[in-house]
Amino acid sequence: MTINARAASGASSQPRTLLRRADGSSIRVLVVDDEATLTDLLAMALHYEDWEVKTASNGQQALQLSREFKPDVVVLDIMLPDIDGLQVLSRMRADGNEAPVLFLTAKDSLDDRIAGLTAGGDDYVTKPFSLEELVARLRGLLRRSRAAVADQDDPVLIVGDLVLDEDSYEVHRDGEPIQLTATEFELLRFLMRNPRRVLSKAQILDRVWSYDFGGSSSVVELYISYLRKKIDAGRPAMIHTVRGAGYMVKAAQ
């Protein structure tokens, strides 16, 4: 496996900003992979971030740790010796664990990436990979999840009867609470920070996922459909498609 040695040793040319949980305690990370060498390297890199790390080598152990450890973010290999990572994620969500999940796998086809995200994952890294990239991806997920303390001048976004609170990570429409995953929340926040502005799929990929999928727009379309089911279902539409241009959010007429 190709590893960036500087990331493994903790050296960096950029000053680090440590991320903490809202209560000041260390971020909790669950790493699930059956390669002991890999989990050891990941644990070393994540400990350098001052995060608390637990590792699991199979799906059943991962589920047990998920319930006991209650991680803030999960690194999850798809190919495991007992049950695959997609099943692990499904059972975690059934248990009520909504922690962001970064899939880690040797599979590199676009279909496999889409499958992982469709299952409810929030990001995807393929082997071989750079530890620096993986840590950066995790930091991005944590910043837009409940584990990150919001640092915005105006934490409450309002568009029509839709309200998003960046501090509490709560979303309401017409006073009714709406439950979103970390990625759905980040996508909605990006739309609401740009009301009545058409955002292209490329802009959304860059802002919400911090990278693209080889030019594919499938992930954006998929998550827009998720948002519509939660935001617009049974109500006047607020999320609109502008053919050939992108998407925008505006107050319902």
Automatic annotation (TrEMBL):
Residue span, OmpR/PhoB-type domain: 154-251
GO biological process, one term: regulation of DNA-templated transcription
UniProt KW Transcription regulation keyword: yes
One GO CC term on file: protein-DNA complex
The entry's keywords: DNA-binding, Phosphoprotein, Transcription, Transcription regulation, Two-component regulatory system
InterPro entries assigned: CheY-like_superfamily, OmpR/PhoB-type_DNA-bd, Sig_transdc_resp-reg_C-effctor, Sig_transdc_resp-reg_receiver, WalR-like, WH-like_DNA-bd_sf
Superkingdom to which the source organism belongs: Bacteria
Positions of the DNA-binding region: 154-251
Domain Response regulatory: residue ranges: 28-142
Residue list for modification 4-aspartylphosphate: 77
Keyword DNA-binding: yes
Pfam families (alphabetical): Response_reg, Trans_reg_C
Recorded GO MF terms: phosphorelay response regulator activity; transcription cis-regulatory region binding
Gene3D superfamilies referenced in this protein's UniProt entry, alphabetically: 3.40.50.2300, 6.10.250.690, Winged helix-like DNA-binding domain superfamily/Winged helix DNA-binding domain
The protein, known as: Two-component system OmpR family response regulator
Lineage: Bacteria, Bacillati, Actinomycetota, Actinomycetes, Micrococcales
